[in-house]
Structures are given as structure tokens and as C-alpha cells.
């Protein structure tokens, strides 16, 4: 990932941010319904480290662009070498837009029906 990927950070006590989701994910991939806590903890550390590294890469891209804020494009650029993950990001962004548009249409229709029923 990053140039300093071989350097391990000192272990700090972290919350188990993704424990519930990882248990479900592990079960979906064929593990026991109640996996060992150590397995979940290791996987949680791996996922958390990956997310932190990805955020650092995106922040580095933003700073090279002379910005203080990270944009979605910074994450896309950080994932440019992994086409599968980049494709998934693109797919999720498109689906997010579709859902937002559907909500907007639903809200607009709801407002029209509220106005129509208030006018009766």
C-alpha cells in the first residue's frame, strides 16, 4: 500500500469496530456461526489497518493537489491499480446516486399528495 507498509505501527488498544459485521461475513464465507474472538480480532485489525492506510493515501493525494480536504476522487486515485476495488467504488457511487434520486422523487410525490390533500 504505502511506501512505509513494511513498518508496523505500535499496537494500540483499539475498539472492535467491525466485530459484528466480520462475524457475519466470516459465517457467510463458511466459518463457524460463532467464530473465535481471536480470529475476529485479527481480521478486525487487518480491516482497520487497510482503511487507515487507504485514508492516508487519499490524504496524501489531496495534499499533492494542494487541498486540505479529501475528495472521493482521491480515494479513486489511490485505488487506481486495483481495478476490482475501483470498479466496486464506482458501482457504489452510482447506486448511491440512484437511491438519492429515488428518494427525491418519492419526497416530491409525497409533498404533492400532501398539498393536494390539504387543499380538499
Q: Describe it for me?
A:
- InterPro entries: Histone-fold (IPR009072), TFIID_TAF13 (IPR003195).
- Pfam families: TFIID-18kDa.
- It comes from Tuber magnatum.
- With 120 residues, the chain is mainly alpha-helical.
- The chain has 2 domains: 16-78, Orthogonal Bundle (Histone, subunit A), CATH 1.10.20; 82-120.
- It contains 4 helices and no strands.
- The chain has helices at 19-28, 37-64, 72-78, 83-118.
- The N and C termini lie far apart (63 Å).
- The relative contact order is 0.07.
- The model has no long low-confidence stretch (mean pLDDT 86).
Number of E-type strands: 0
Strand pairing plus helix content: what structural class? mainly alpha
CATH superfamily of the largest domain: Histone, subunit A
| Overall number of structural domains | 2
Q: Which overall shape is indicated by the principal axes computed on the Cα atoms?
A: flat
Distance between the termini: 63 Å
Largest sheet: none
Instruction: Classify the beta-strand content into a percent band.
Output: under 5%
Rg on CA atoms, Å: 21 Å
CATH level-two architecture of the largest domain: Orthogonal Bundle
* Mean of all residue-level pLDDT scores: 86
Q: Could you name the CATH topology of the largest domain? A: Histone, subunit A
Name the helix and strand elements from N-terminus to C-terminus, one letter apiece.
Answer: HHHH
Tally of DSSP helical segments? 4
Low-confidence stretches: none
Portion in helices: 55-70%
CATH C-level category of the largest domain: Mainly Alpha
Amino acid at each position: 500500500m504505502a511506501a512505509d507498509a513494511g513498518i508496523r505501527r505500535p499496537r494500540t488498544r483499539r475498539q472492535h469496530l467491525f466485530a459484528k459485521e466480520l462475524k457475519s461475513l466470516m459465517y457467510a464465507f463458511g466459518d463457524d456461526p460463532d467464530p473465535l474472538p481471536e480470529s475476529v480480532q485479527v481480521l478486525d485489525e487487518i480491516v482497520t489497518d487497510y482503511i487507515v492506510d487507504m485514508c492516508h493515501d487519499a490524504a496524501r493525494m489531496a495534499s499533492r493537489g494542494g487541498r486540505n480536504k479529501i475528495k472521493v476522487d482521491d480515494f479513486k486515485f489511490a485505488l487506481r491499480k486495483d481495478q476490482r476495488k475501483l470498479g466496486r467504488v464506482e458501482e457504489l457511487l452510482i447506486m448511491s446516486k440512484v437511491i438519492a434520486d429515488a428518494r427525491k422523487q418519492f419526497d416530491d410525490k409525497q409533498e404533492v399528495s400532501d398539498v393536494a390533500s390539504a387543499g380538499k
